[in-house]
């Protein structure tokens, strides 16, 4: 039962992100009472993108085998001490302003590219430039 609820929340988050990215016009969404501040929200989104890209090596151990994307998502919420409902409402609010949301998304992607360059071997960076 608990696992199904986690899967449902994961699907709900995916739908919210998808609707935010695909919205073409501004809607009149009321500002939530507990809106996550923009800077904190962007940091959370960075972490969510990182956990989405986290590839669990099935050979590691049984604990990691049981991790799901939903578990990783909830670990980000726990890290920032934010309830899932507050995060989803903030996501819906910010994504209802597509131009602003796109600017936020560009900043998030730029940050992730910087982080990638820090950890990518120099040989791969040089090969990509050629």
Describe it.
This protein has helices at 2-22, 38-52, 62-65, 69-80, 84-95, 98-119, 122-129. With 130 residues, it is an all-alpha fold. The chain has one domain (2-24, 36-129).
Question: Which features does this protein show?
Answer:
72% helix, 0% strand, globular, mainly alpha, 130 residues, 7 helices
Helix and strand arrangement:
Blueprint: H1 2-22, H2 38-52, H3 62-65, H4 69-80, H5 84-95, H6 98-119, H7 122-129
InterPro entries: DUF4296
Signal peptide: 1-28
Domain DUF4296: 32-114
Quick rundown:
InterPro entries: DUF4296. With 130 residues, this protein is an all-alpha fold. It has one domain (2-24, 36-129).
Radius of gyration: 17 Å
Residue share in helix = over 70%
Summed up, the helix count is: 7
- Average per-residue pLDDT, rounded, comes to 77
Give a count of the beta strands, DSSP E runs of length 2 or more: 0
Poorly predicted tracts of residues: none
Sheet with most strands: none
Secondary-structure element string: HHHHHHH
How large a portion of the residues is in β-strands, by DSSP E? under 5%
Question: What's the number of domains?
Answer: 1
Give the class from helix and strand content and strand pairing. mainly alpha
- Overall outline: globular
The span between the termini is 52 Å
């Amino acid at each position: 039962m608990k696992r199904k609820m986690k899967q449902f929340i994961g699907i709900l988050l995916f739908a919210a992100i998808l609707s935010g990215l695909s919205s073409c016009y501004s809607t009149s969404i009321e500002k939530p009472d507990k809106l996550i501040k923009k800077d904190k929200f962007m940091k959370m989104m960075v972490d969510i993108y990182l956990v989405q890209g986290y590839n669990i090596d099935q050979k590691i151990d049984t604990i990691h085998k049981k991790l799901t994307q939903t578990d990783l998502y909830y670990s980000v919420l726990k890290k920032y001490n934010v309830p899932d409902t507050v995060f989803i409402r903030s996501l819906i609010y910010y994504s209802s302003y597509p131009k602003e949301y796109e600017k936020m998304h560009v900043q998030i992607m730029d940050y992730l590219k910087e982080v990638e360059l820090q950890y990518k071997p120099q040989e791969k960076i040089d090969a990509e430039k050629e």
